TrEMBL record:
One of its GO terms (cellular component) is nucleus. SUPFAM superfamilies: Expressed protein At2g23090/F21P24.15. Keywords: Cytoplasm, Metal-binding, Nucleus, Repressor, Translation regulation, Zinc, Zinc-finger. Residues 39-61 form the C2H2-type domain. The keyword Electron transport does not apply. Residues 17-29 have a biased composition (Basic and acidic residues). GO terms for biological process: regulation of translation. Its main location: cytoplasm. This is Zinc finger protein 706. GO terms for molecular function: zinc ion binding. InterPro entries: MBS1/2-like, SERF-like_N, ZNF706/At2g23090_sf, Znf_C2H2_type. Residues 1-29, 54-76 are annotated as: Disordered.
Length: 76
């Protein structure tokens, strides 16, 4: 085991490097995606990222329901 101590040092150095990378990222993809969904359908409670998508959803999924006032002026 000529490389025993060197191998151990290398593993420690790599573990520290990986921990630093993980800390620096500090951003969860799932949480970021959830934060982007700001519009909620009043009928089915589905969440959408922007008003255009919201209006398209409302027109296709709920054609018999009346359009919410915030979507009337949105151009799809």
């Amino acid at each position: 085991m000529a490389r025993g101590h060197q191998k151990f040092q290398s593993q420690q150095k790599n573990a520290k490097k990986q921990a630093d990378i993980k800390k620096s990222k500090g951003h969860d993809q799932k949480a970021a995606a959830k934060a982007a969904l700001v519009y909620t359908c009043t009928v089915c409670r589905t969440q959408m990222p922007d008003p255009k998508t919201f209006k398209q959803h409302f027109e296709s999924k709920h054609p018999k329901s009346s359009m919410p006032p915030e979507l009337v002026s949105v151009e799809a």
